[in-house]
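The instructor's notes for this session suggest beginning with a concrete chain rather than abstract definitions. Hand out the sequence below and ask the class to guess, before any prediction is shown, which regions might be ordered.
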Amino acid sequence: MIAASIYIPKDNPKRPRGDDAHFISAEEQTIGVADGVGGWIKSGIDGGEYARQLMFNSVLALHKQTKRWRTRKPKRVLQDAILHRLHHHTFGDRLFAANVGDSGFLVIRNGDVLYQSPKQQRTFNCPYQLGTTKDNPSVAEEIEVEVEAGDIIVVGTDGLFDNMHASEILEIVRRGTTEGRKDSLMEQCCNMANLALYNSFDRYTDTPYSIASRMAGKYHKGGKVDDITVIIAKIED
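After discussion, reveal the predicted structure:
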């Protein structure tokens, strides 16, 4: 599994690093994203810092050859998180994911969506949150998907999936892998993140976030301004 990534924090001079964090470990064949809960800054808790700590501790745990994802427990951690690890087997490869909250991923095969992870949320815009005052890791949904050479995995925080439909993501992947045009994974990441950013400021486009808001009896026009993290991975022979 090879991968590339891009991160676009929302414009906030007071918190230029934003609340998202991610990592790619080629050696351990593992990728992960975490979305810190920005609203907790009102209580003096920097969700972005804890998201970065979670991802850093995940990498440390991987390098220690742990059999399961484990992190040193901070005093308070509040964020959504999703981790993916590719396992090689004699009869095929499997992608294992552990997901908490509304970050997510798609598995794309031959230009179509093979699998899309569900959101973990109690109500509209209220996702599960890791933390001593919220949810503990036992709420993580464990997902297993069979993958094969050529499959594309798109991982992102809600800044991506609230602002882009699966069809838009598919179109970028299709364009980047058609005959005569072979965009790199990095180019596809940039194209995807830039479109998500554009949609987030568009007050008239019908985004997944605006559709979900209507279904919840609320009214939100256009996209949702947020931090945007995109990881695109490809399964190779």
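Then share the key points. The first strand starts at residue 2 and ends at 8. The chain has one domain: 2-234.
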